[in-house]
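G., the chain you wanted modeled:
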Amino acid sequence: MATWRDFEYQLNAPVDGKLPQAMRHGGGRARRVLAFAKLAEARALARMGDATGASTALSRAESWLDKITPGARDSPWLSYVTPGRLAADATEIFRDLRKPEAALGWSRQAGELSDVHQTRAVGLRLAVAATAACQARDLDQALDHGDRALALLPAGGVDPCPDLPRRCGHGP
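Predicted structure as tokens:
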């Protein structure tokens, strides 16, 4: 963990009033990677029940996303790490921390920022929002979110790689 903190400090610290070398070249990618890492940290800390740590990591992830220059060249493998994705993950983070009002607020924000092409992600966020509404003892809102989630998510789940057994030599 010390190595990560040292690295993050170096990227946060200005060098002669300029951005560090790692940020000048490929800065959008570096910032998005750091946002992704902080978001993963926030989710893990929330699952462990560390509200302060999760909130701090989420705030830093949001800060890294805010620092990305619009239109900057970016890595396609992390292009999904956007303010909408951060808000959707924050819904889950605050649900895990048993802070349903905050979770539902982030869910509303994620809804405003969602990409309509990410139907599965929206369905999963709505399912998480339904559990947060249950925590808040708001059955009407829980049922509304749950119904909308079920309408978006396919019955029986999704098989992300249906031909994997065949490719591994275990299928017809």
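Confidence is low (pLDDT under 50) at residues 13-19.

Shout if anything looks off.
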